[in-house]
Prior knowledge:
Number of helices: 14
Largest sheet: 5 strands, antiparallel
Shape: elongated
Radius of gyration: 28 Å
Strand content: 5-15%
Structural class: alpha+beta
Amino acid sequence: MVEFPIEGSLREPLLVVEGVIVVILIQLGIIFFRKYLRERETSTNNVILAWSLFLFTYSIVFLFYIIADFYLEIMGEGIIRDDLLNVSYQFAVGGAALFSFYTEREIKINHYFSISMFILTCGLIANAFLQFIESSVYLTFVAWLLFIVLIYFYIRYFTQLLGDKWRGNVYSLMIGVILIVLGFGGTSDWMVNAAGGLWMRFFGDAIIIMGTIFISMLFIGVPSLAEFDWHKKLRYLNVMLHTGISVAHYHFNVDDQEKDKSVDELLMAGGLTSISQIVSDIIQSEKKLDYIDHGDLKIIFAHGNLITSALIVEEPLEILRSKLRKFTSQVEFIYEENLKTWSGDLEQFQFIEALVKANFMEGSRK
Length: 366
């Protein structure tokens, strides 16, 4: 049976490790919150805020753990360890409730998880006064299980929006969260006593640190959440020979009346009538440019052996660059002979529209 406050040879090493965990969680929370502030104009900022709040609340939880397990006697007899731990559980489940609310709001599902988390939070607060359950850990454990289920829906939703390039990073998020939850379980009194010593607490701390590393991999590897709405950033696509002559074009996010406008009219409206000359200059230069900023509109280029594709967008997202490169390769693969011997007949390139829809319509995954 481990006695509190923790003393002995493991006190200082545990304090250092758990202090590092608090700092890491706070730093990650700040990173996500700054990301939220930068992208609050986008439609997906709720998820960033949810992660920030989750990390902040769990740093507070761990801080309460440290105070309760290492410094309770120093603070005086008026503070009971169980009461302080109950407050930490309230923060843990409350943070999960906030995360659930903003995540459900983003992925457009009913607020069953956040309501359940809120009820559990109220139960923890009531239990602090009424003591109808021997330990608040049981309610917290139920909240953790619900949280993991919500993470499953979260991952399933966002992996449908991202290509294979980033899915490994998104899966690392789920692993990270599960490791953090398991790590918190490993540091609990029940697990430490069942395992026969404070080594289990060290093991739980190590799992939590591994979980934060996996979440960090998500932040570093996965693109901005604005990437999830990439289809809303598309304006116009032009496929050109290396001479600058257009062989196909496509309008995005415009109604039927707008589609009837000529290409020249659209380009004039965007101030881009010189796009063919721009492409010619780019091709002739030794270093081929892949991006031009033209005020409110941006032009992304993908250069093949026979053609250059120019995609006019509102924001030069990485997922759009990847899609444009893939589209360009597909066009060259299908129309290689036609492009080499092209005599001015545009009818032979009608299938390009199907390639556009396959690559750039909402629901295409890669």
